[in-house]
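Recall the central idea of this unit: under ordinary conditions, the amino acid sequence of a chain determines the structure it adopts. In this exercise we apply that idea directly, starting from the sequence alone.
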Amino acid sequence: MSKEISKIKQYFDAVNYITVAQLYLEDNFLVSDNLSKKNIKKKLLGHRGTAPNFNYIYAHLNAFVRRHRQKINLVIGAGHASAALISNLYLKNIKYRRGS
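Accordingly, the structure predicted from this sequence is:
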C-alpha cells in the first residue's frame, strides 16, 4: 500500500470514529472506560447512513487537492451529512493548529 493511500485510510478511519462518537455518545467518547448504556445519548439526532460515503469522498478530495494544488468547493446540504462534515472540519482544524 502506498504511503498516500495509507494516510487516506488512517484519516478515513479517524473521521468515521469521530462521526459515530458525535452521533451516538453522550460521554466517554475517548473510551477511557468500558462503554455502557449511560454513555449513549438519550435522543439520537441523525444517523450514520451517509457518513462513511461522505467521509470517503472528503478524504479523497483532500488528497486530490494536495496532489494537484487545486481549489475545490464542496457543497453539501445540512441534513444527513452534517455530522460527517463537522467531523472532517474538526480534524482539519486540529491539523492546522499543530502546523502539520
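The mean pLDDT is 88.
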